[in-house]
Amino acid sequence: MARLWVPHRMVYVADHHQPDHTDCPFCEAPKRSDEDALIVARGETAYVLLNLFPYNNGHMLVCPYRHVSLYDEATREEVAEVAALTQVAMRVAREVMGCQGFNIGMNQGEIAGAGVAAHLHQHIVPRWAADSNFFPIIAKTKALPQLLGDVRASFAAAWPHP
């Protein structure tokens, strides 16, 4: 098995401060405008926003409004809406960006690598056949072809409204 050593990622693992509900970015985002908070869509119990530090172009997060840290602490309604919003986000990303696949998942707890372990969130990372290169490893830089505000606007415009 080949291994890529990425010591620049230690900042996400080594920072032991986890926000509580008073300084949580996922509790604060819904209080701001969609454009300012990079929110793509709002549901009843959960919402979708762009990751401020994306792994790839179009990297979205689905978060419940309620400050809950683990998946098994979420209500049935929250779990159902996170799943439904994830499906819509995938469809929108394919329509807007023509992505060919996705990485979807949740890191539960600090030990599992969650950057904000105190507030449940699911990652939706669009992927393309040739979206990886040496830049993130050698230069500690990820080349993203679009500004976050432009991506948010295109996703929000394509998001179906009931």
UniProtKB/TrEMBL annotation:
<feature type="active site" description="Tele-AMP-histidine intermediate">
    <location>
        <position position="121"/>
    </location>
</feature>
<dbReference type="GO" id="GO:0000166">
    <property type="term" value="F:nucleotide binding"/>
</dbReference>
<dbReference type="InterPro" id="IPR052908">
    <property type="entry name" value="AP-4-A_phosphorylase"/>
</dbReference>
<dbReference type="InterPro" id="IPR011146">
    <property type="entry name" value="HIT-like"/>
</dbReference>
<dbReference type="GO" id="GO:0003824">
    <property type="term" value="F:catalytic activity"/>
</dbReference>
<feature type="binding site">
    <location>
        <begin position="113"/>
        <end position="116"/>
    </location>
    <ligand>
        <name>substrate</name>
    </ligand>
</feature>
<dbReference type="InterPro" id="IPR036265">
    <property type="entry name" value="HIT-like_sf"/>
</dbReference>
<keyword id="KW-0547">Nucleotide-binding</keyword>
<feature type="short sequence motif" description="Histidine triad motif">
    <location>
        <begin position="119"/>
        <end position="123"/>
    </location>
</feature>
<feature type="binding site">
    <location>
        <position position="51"/>
    </location>
    <ligand>
        <name>substrate</name>
    </ligand>
</feature>
<protein>
    <submittedName>
        <fullName>HIT domain-containing protein</fullName>
    </submittedName>
</protein>
<feature type="domain" description="HIT">
    <location>
        <begin position="25"/>
        <end position="134"/>
    </location>
</feature>
<dbReference type="Pfam" id="PF01230">
    <property type="entry name" value="HIT"/>
</dbReference>
<dbReference type="InterPro" id="IPR039383">
    <property type="entry name" value="FHIT"/>
</dbReference>
<feature type="binding site">
    <location>
        <position position="123"/>
    </location>
    <ligand>
        <name>substrate</name>
    </ligand>
</feature>
